[in-house]
Amino acid sequence: MEPLKEMFGKSYYNRLSGAVSQVYTRFQKDEFIKQALEPLATLSLNERMRHTSKLLRQHLPDEYKKAVNILKKVAPLVDRGYTALVFPDFVSQFGIHDFTTSLDALHFFTSFGSSEFAIRTFLKMDFDRTINVMQDWSLDKNEHVRRLASEGSRPRLPWSFKLDEVIKYPEKTGRILENLKEDESLYVRKSVANHLNDITKDSPTYVLELIQGWNQQHIHTQWIIKRGCRSLFKIGDKQSLKVFNYTADVSVAVKKFSATSTLKIGDTLKFEFDLVSQSKNAQKLMVDFKIHYVKKSGQLSAKVFKLKEIELKAGETVALSKTQRFQDFTTRKHFAGKHKLEIVVNGEVVKKCTFEVLKK
């Protein structure tokens, strides 16, 4: 599989320079491509993006507004997706001095390649002024812009720096979340849920108080809350379980449990069991399983996976089974050693075992 950084390769720079040349006739296409390719082999994915932003700054007009206007015409002519993040990156690197032009540009560029990382530079520089604009964005007719309002202001956005202002004062993004809590776009709802989940890491009580005031019967709001509280569910937080009426003190037994005891990297872990109610009342249960993976260091790192949500009647038995592939990907590597498997019901571990993973 070709490394992701190859998205910024020779063919990309040919396409980009061709598009810029259509809009800006003074653009030195050949020189741009030459300078783009010279250090490429030594640069990572994001270093290539930043390298591209800097080169565009060198080859476009010195006046920032003129350069941005050229890029606005270029963006629709090239591929959307990750490589299009170069446009908002350009703004974050060279547009701090012109707040109005820059935020207008990020609003425009986010439909081609998300401005979620770039907007954080402005939040760091002037949080209150930027968040006020983002509150307006949360009401925009364009789903990409609405998502930007939520995603860009997440306190713990992956692959970016933390927003300490939101971690300390989560209510500062409350209006954005309020505006988006019933959004029809799944793209937006996923962001709102992830934003909530970020906040639960530092201020779980705030999140639970916030969602108490929402219409939890609304199908979109219900989806957001459920996904947004997933980290609390995983640790068995009683308050969050109560929001969705999950049974607080589960009374179950695990019987007929069996699991693969030994497997090689590339094989599949299989396990099955009967979950038996030992209660006189019906129980609303969230059944998960947790695998403690062996890391390269030899230490264990736990990851929780969803298994099933059930309404278990008094004395009822339900048979459950699952397979989990131990295949290496670019985002996850497996290592030989003794792993642990746990069955978790409403945050409580009800069964555990170990299994051995061997080298290929």
Ends apart, CA distance between termini: 20 Å
Instruction: Based on Cα principal axes, name the global outline.
Output: globular
- Major sheet: 5 strands, mixed
Q: What Rg do the Cα atoms give?
A: 25 Å
What is the H-and-E element order? Answer: HHHHHHHHHHHHHHHHEEEEEEEE
Mean pLDDT, all residues:
95
Would you tell me which CATH topology of the largest domain applies? Serine Threonine Protein Phosphatase 5, Tetratricopeptide repeat
Number of strand segments: 8
CATH class placement of the largest domain: Mainly Alpha
| Strand order of the biggest β-sheet | 2-8-7-4-5
Q: Given the structure, what is the number of helices? A: 16
Strand-pairing-aware structural class? alpha+beta
Number of domains: 3
Low-confidence stretches: none
Give a quick rundown of the structure:
The protein has 360 residues and is an alpha+beta fold. The protein is 43% helix and 21% strand. It has helices at 10-23, 29-37, 45-59, 64-74, 86-94, 99-109, 118-125, 127-137, 143-151, 164-168, 174-180, 186-200, 204-212, 219-228, 230-234, 238-243; strands spanning 252-259, 262-264, 268-277, 283-294, 300-312, 317-325, 337-345, 348-358.
Can you describe what's shown?
The chain is of the alpha+beta class and 360 residues long. It has three domains: 110 residues; 129 residues, ARM repeat domains (Serine Threonine Protein Phosphatase 5, Tetratricopeptide repeat); 107 residues, Immunoglobulins (Immunoglobulin-like, Sandwich). The chain has 16 helices and eight strands. The strands form two sheets. The protein has a five-stranded mixed beta sheet with strand order 2-8-7-4-5, with no helix packed on it. Strand 7 and strand 8 form a beta hairpin. It is globular, with a radius of gyration of 25 Å. The two termini are 20 Å apart.
